[in-house]
Amino acid sequence: MAVPDLLNPNILSHIKRLSVSEKISLIEDIWDSIVLSEEALSVTEKQKKELDTRQIEYNKNPDDGNSWPEVKKKIESGL
Length: 79
Known about the structure:
2 domains; 70% helix
């Protein structure tokens, strides 16, 4: 895995020594900090239009599509 130039090698060295559960906790903390950032939550106009289109289509036919268990089964059967 390539290390971004902005990541201090000392930090990376410490991360590598963490247990799996500690690494997961760190990832959760990083993710939480991303989610709280307004920059990370911005949606482009194109994305907004696509979401609006999908919402309209869903409202027309809410029973179309597949349930999560059906989708999951299809994904797992393809592995």
